[in-house]
Amino acid sequence: MSEEHKTEGKKSNSPSSTPAQTAKTVQGTDAEATNLQGHYRVLYEVLFFIALALAGLGMALTNASPALGYRYWAVTIVLFAIATMGATGVRLHAGKEPMLQPIALQGLQWLIALFALFIVHMLLQAGRMTFPAAGFVTMLIVGLSLALDGLYQTGWRFALLGLAIMTMVLVIAWFAVYLWLIVFGAIILWGLALLVEHRQGHGPVAR
Fold first, then answer.
1. Is residue 124 in some structural domain?
2. N or C: which end of the chain has fewer CB within 10 A?
3. Which helix (H) or strand (E) is 160 found in, with range?
4. 111: how many CB neighbours lie within 10 A of its CB?
5. Distance between CA 181 and CA 185 in Å, rounded?
6. Per-residue pLDDT tens digits for 139-161
7. In a domain, 4, yes or no
């Protein structure tokens, strides 16, 4: 056998990377992706918990005093907007999707909600609406905005939270609801959301 054939044989028998090395590389990449997904999930959970806590406190305050609830919802609607836009940013960044246009549209939706609250305020100042009625209407606007945001951007959990806020408008107006019942209901809602996502086998980032 000539020297050229021996040289070619040596080159063919010495691959640049073995299957074991390739497997280790893939495993390391999967581990890094899992860690990133874990960070996204924790951040998403924190944002949802903030929205849930704000909603629970707002429902309790509105139950105690609709006039006080009006002021609360008028202020915290900005916090709801920040929480939902942050959750959308987490979801889009995790999926490596463009963020500018969806978040811009989401911000426009919350600006429209703020405009609706401004109209409520003007009606209140003109004497066309009482403070208790303004509290219920403001709570309804926040719930509707949160439900629509969850439906089109942040996922079903935020949509469910918005529907719960809207439903509580009727419950508070018609029935005597105790504070512990509202807090308990909010905790149950969060627990059910975690249970459903656990059984589905994916994190909250997936819509």
1. yes
2. N
3. helix 156-174
4. 11
5. 6
6. 999 999 999 998 888 888 888 88
7. no
